[in-house]
Write a sequence for this structure.
């Protein structure tokens, strides 16, 4: 890909970018959210047309007008958001677009055989007759990979494939990618996770704000250098923080029980803990051990079955979400698309979602749009939320990192007593992660209570003043500082402290 | 026994338009376009079909070759339906208009247009186009003697060419939807158009195909309705297009369940229309006009059924949302 330029209204997504991929290599494409990685790949895959530049394959200039054309050239792509039809079977999804037919009727036998062969060869376990809606995210990704292999693609594009996977699944994916490399297939691997690049890639090209920064051999580079290229400045991996000034109890949870939606058992089984002003308490555990339900119970998204929640001395066990918010609880939700933002609203509307009823923003039921605009602009400036059109940008069109910044801006600016942050850095690049971590620590230093729920052990270790380990809906450990190994044992349920210590 | 044969045969003839139109709606919705204009398409299809039959009646061709004339009328109704549905397709797919509003506009337009055309051709005040009687399929169509037995009633008393045509189109619909690559691709466009696009399927073209097939079927359905009712065409299909939408929803967007629900709805329609001549129905002696009670039945059943089924119904996920290549 030579000198590719692609413009969108108001933004130059790709500016003169050159990218060369060798046969049989894993080439990482690194950049912050919104740096133009996905756009570049969409140009290569034929979803967008570049205004300038040309694409060559094996020295010959090619014009990729649509995905069909890309497919003919042997270019396949696993999209960040899977392109799978949920009510179809795995097999239907794989053959969609390249169906075999006999006298007009679909033929599944040879397709099934080929899929099973590929599945065996590369260790991609799938059930061809399962519905997409019934299988795990990891398996959905394997279906996407099989889709490319089924089409005999030689160039495989992975658009942030690890964002949705568990650590175990990431390991498997890396092994699969190495397998492809040995087969002589070329892989373009889009990511912003440095350790993955260091682990699997041969070379790495870096983009920043739509511009090409450079290409480096992984063997001759370091994590620090890559992140400097990506962000344009030094990035602190270790967070500097003062020792905590612990104050009064802000949140007190007693014997909390929350029912599970997935099964009949309770997801949270009698959890008790306290969070004080001026400390970051982290709830750590393997996904699906009741963290989500615990947060739902705390924030009022789900009713609690029994137990009590006290915020600053006030019982809020059965309070509505708005009351909790008024009493000083802020919530950075796990799923920013589902609970954090109204995606089709503008940024300014999203920023006043919890406060539009305050006299500052409304007058006898009519929204004071001037005040809203001004307030949104203030938050945008203060928290450096980048978007195409400022306060009137539709939230959906913003990059993930900036969506998250917008939520954090809204939640922190409320001056909460308690900030509940659930996986606040999920899917974000190092620059944004660094920023969010700083914000959380700043909140702590300002005397707020922060409850952090995270799956990332690095994050847990570097941020928290106290760690609670949750396993199967119970808190099995409470640490001031802990060793990684030991935390892992608690998270896996192999070890637990006495009931007394958990309180 | 003949009562039973009557009921079955009438149910079939009333189910035919419901089945055709609901299948039409199914194609359109599986492609991702909500076709609220079914009612209007039926009116246009019926209008054109009825005028062709009237013309054949007047020039004598119809009496000489009744079933050929009927087949031509069906084809013209279908063609008119396709042409009219293109308006919806253009608004919904190219202009990305709101499909509900587009469909409603066409529904308002169609009967008005039909009235104007009917008057223009038949003269002021002549609001009804009469249906010739020779189009019916009887024993004589096959050169047999006319008899009155159970099977004669079942097959030769009320049936028209629309019935075998509907049966064929039903089988075609099932095969097309679930056994061919066209069906697989069409359904993908209604469920997840971005996914379809990413594997090189032209979503716009598939949606055009879906809407046009629905126009084809609804056009025939309009003619089938007029024939089934039997009192001529007066610029209306009596809400059958909306009833067909309910049949489609009740049928969960699948051909076989649509067939089943079309038959159930048709049965209630028959009870409504012929309640006085069906001996075993309660008569509600005290009421002044008990037949109105029965005439309400199909519509009440529609409401009740939708209340109970709408929760677990599986509509195509992307229906009603204009597809925009650029959006993420």
């Amino acid at each position: 890909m030579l000198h590719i330029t692609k413009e969108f209204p108001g933004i130059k997504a790709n500016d003169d970018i050159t990218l060369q991929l060798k046969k049989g290599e894993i080439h990482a494409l690194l950049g912050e959210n919104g740096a133009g990685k996905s756009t570049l790949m969409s140009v290569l895959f034929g979803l967008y047309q570049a205004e300038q530049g040309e694409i060559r394959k094996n020295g010959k200039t090619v014009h990729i007008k649509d995905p069909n054309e890309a497919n003919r050239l042997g270019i396949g792509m696993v999209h960040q958001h899977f392109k799978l039809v949920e009510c179809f079977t795995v097999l239907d999804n794989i053959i969609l677009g390249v169906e075999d037919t006999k006298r007009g009727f679909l033929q599944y036998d040879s397709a099934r055989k080929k899929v099973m062969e590929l599945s065996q060869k590369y260790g991609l376990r799938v059930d061809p007759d399962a519905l997409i809606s019934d299988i795990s995210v990891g398996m959905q990704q394997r279906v996407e990979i099989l889709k490319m292999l089924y089409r005999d693609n030689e160039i495989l594009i992975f658009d942030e494939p690890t964002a949705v996977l568990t650590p175990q699944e990431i390991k498997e994916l890396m092994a699969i990618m190495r397998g492809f490399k040995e087969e002589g297939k070329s892989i373009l691997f889009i990511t912003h996770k440095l350790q993955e690049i260091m682990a699997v890639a041969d070379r790495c090209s870096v983009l920043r704000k739509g511009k090409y920064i450079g290409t480096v051999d992984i063997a001759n580079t370091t994590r620090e250098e890559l992140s400097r290229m990506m962000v344009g400045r030094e990035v602190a991996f270790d967070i500097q923080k003062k020792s905590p000034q612990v104050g009064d109890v802000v949140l007190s949870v007693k014997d909390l029980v929350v029912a599970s939606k997935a099964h009949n058992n309770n997801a949270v089984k009698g959890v008790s803990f306290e969070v004080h002003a001026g400390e970051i308490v982290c709830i750590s555990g393997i996904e699906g051990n009741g963290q989500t339900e615990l947060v739902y119970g705390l924030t009022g998204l789900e009713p609690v079955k029994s137990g009590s929640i006290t915020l600053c001395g006030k019982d809020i066990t059965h309070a509505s979400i708005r009351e909790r918010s008024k009493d000083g609880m802020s919530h950075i939700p796990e799923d920013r698309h589902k609970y954090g933002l109204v995606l089709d609203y503008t940024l300014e509307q999203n920023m006043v979602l919890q406060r539009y009823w305050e006299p500052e923003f409304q007058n006898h039921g009519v929204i004071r749009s001037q005040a809203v605009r001004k307030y949104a602009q203030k938050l945008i400036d203060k928290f450096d939320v980048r978007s195409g059109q400022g306060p009137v940008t539709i939230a959906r069109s913003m990059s993930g990192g900036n969506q998250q910044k917008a939520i954090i801006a809204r939640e922190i600016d409320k001056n909460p007593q308690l900030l509940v942050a659930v996986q606040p850095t999920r899917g974000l690049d190092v620059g944004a992660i660094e920023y969010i971590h700083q914000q959380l620590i700043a909140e702590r230093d300002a005397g707020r209570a922060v409850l952090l729920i995270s799956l990332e052990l690095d994050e847990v270790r570097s941020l928290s003043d106290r760690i609670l380990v949750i396993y199967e809906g119970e808190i099995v450990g409470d640490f001031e500082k802990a060793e990684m190994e030991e935390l892992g044992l608690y998270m896996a349920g192999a070890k637990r402290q006495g009931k007394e210590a958990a309180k | 026994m003949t009562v039973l044969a009557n009921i079955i045969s009438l149910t079939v003839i009333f189910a035919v338009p419901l089945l055709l139109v609901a299948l039409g709606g199914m194609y359109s919705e599986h492609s991702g376009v909500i076709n609220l204009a079914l009612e209007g398409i039926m009116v246009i299809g019926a209008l054109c079909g009825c005028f062709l039959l009237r013309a054949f009646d007047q020039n004598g061709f119809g009496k000489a070759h009744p079933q050929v004339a009927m087949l031509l009328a069906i084809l013209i109704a279908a063609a008119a339906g396709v042409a009219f549905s293109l308006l919806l397709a253009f608004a919904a797919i190219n202009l990305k208009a709101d499909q509900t509003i587009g469909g409603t506009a066409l529904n308002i337009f169609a009967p008005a247009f039909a009235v104007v055309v009917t008057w223009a051709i038949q003269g002021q005040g002549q609001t009804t186009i009469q249906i010739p009687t020779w189009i019916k399929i009887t024993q004589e169509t096959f050169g047999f003697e006319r008899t009155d037995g159970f099977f004669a009633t079942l097959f030769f008393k009320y049936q028209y060419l629309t019935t075998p045509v509907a049966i064929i189109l039903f089988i075609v619909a099932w095969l097309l939807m679930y056994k061919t690559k066209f069906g697989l691709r069409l359904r993908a466009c209604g469920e997840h158009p971005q996914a379809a696009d990413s594997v090189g399927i032209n979503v716009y073209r598939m949606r055009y195909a879906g809407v046009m097939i629905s126009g084809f079927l609804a056009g025939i359905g309009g003619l089938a309705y007029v024939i089934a009712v039997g009192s001529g065409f007066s610029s209306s299909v009596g809400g059958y297009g909306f009833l067909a939408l309910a049949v489609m929803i009740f049928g969960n967007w699948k051909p076989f369940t649509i067939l089943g629900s079309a038959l159930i709805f048709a049965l209630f329609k028959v009870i409504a229309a012929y309640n006085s001549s069906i001996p075993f129905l309660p008569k509600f002696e005290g009421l002044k006009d008990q037949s109105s009670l029965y005439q309400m039945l199909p519509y009440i059943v529609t409401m009740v059924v939708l209340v109970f089924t709408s929760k677990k119904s599986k509509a195509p996920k992307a229906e009603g949302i204009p597809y925009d290549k650029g959006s993420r």
